[in-house]
Specification:
Length: 187
């Protein structure tokens, strides 16, 4: 007996081009073929000559049918984005640390500058007090200098008056000069 595959498995004659199938073959009743009898699963056929049927030794176990997909761990692909993000994170942390260090240094410099400004302000306040005191002393000394000049002018006029002859015109002029220069001292 020869086995003839069903027509949808037929590869055709070698010279005949094979037609591609656009749909799966149908499993409905087959059309009778003219020619040698073919194997048909729907019709029982006589076993071939020399075939001896045997019974399986134990219960026949069908292969397990997979109804659910096996839980296969997913393939872990490393994305190219992970190393890039790692580098960016490292650069970001380094930049943050550098910024913090610079900020702390600038903050310390600012505190030092503020302390120097406060010291200078106190020195300026002390110098301002000294300047005010010196100005007061200068004004007092100017008054004393003016008084001493006025006293010197009075004394000079008195000396001139006593150096003149009595009843002369020069004595009269000296007397007028004494009244003018010594008004605050004598009169």
């Amino acid at each position: 007996m020869t086995y003839n595959p069903p027509p949808h498995y037929s590869f055709g004659d070698p010279g005949e081009p094979q037609q591609p199938q656009s749909a799966p073959p149908s499993y409905g009743p087959q059309q009778p073929q003219s020619g040698p009898p073919a194997y048909s699963p729907a019709s029982p056929a006589a076993p071939p000559a020399g075939y001896v049927p045997t019974q399986p030794a134990g219960p026949q176990v069908a292969p397990p049918m997979l109804t659910q997909p096996l839980m296969v761990p997913p393939v872990q692909r490393r994305s190219a984005l992970v190393p890039v993000l790692a580098v960016v994170a490292v650069i970001g942390f380094a930049g943050a640390a550098l910024s913090l260090a610079l900020w702390l240094r600038a903050s310390g410099d600012l505190d030092d500058a503020n302390a120097q400004v406060e010291d200078r302000d106190s020195e300026i306040a002390d110098l301002q007090e000294s300047l005010d005191s010196a100005e007061t002393q200068v004004s007092e000394l100017e008054v004393q200098a003016a008084d001493s000049e006025s006293m010197r002018a009075c004394l000079d006029d008195l000396a001139w008056f006593y150096a003149t002859e009595a009843g002369s015109e020069e004595e009269t002029q000296a007397q007028l000069a004494i009244q003018d220069s010594c008004s605050t001292w004598l009169f």
